[in-house]
Amino acid sequence: TPKGSCLESVKIAIDTGYRHIDGAFVYYNEHEVGQAIREKIAEGRISREDIFYCGKLWNTCHPPELVRPTLEKTLKTLQLDYVDLYIIELPMAFKPGDAIYPKDENGKIIYHETDLCATWEAMEACKDAGLAKSIGVSNFNRRQLEMILNKPGLKYKPVSNQVECHPYFTQPKLLEFCRQHDIVIVGYSPLGTSRDETWVNVSSPPLLKDPVLNAIGKKYNKTAAQVALRFSIQRGVVVIPKSFNPQRIRENFQIFDFSLTEKEMKDIEALNKNVRYVELLM
Ligand code: A2P
Question: Where is this site: Lowers pKa of active site Tyr (predicted)?
Answer without folding.
Answer: 56
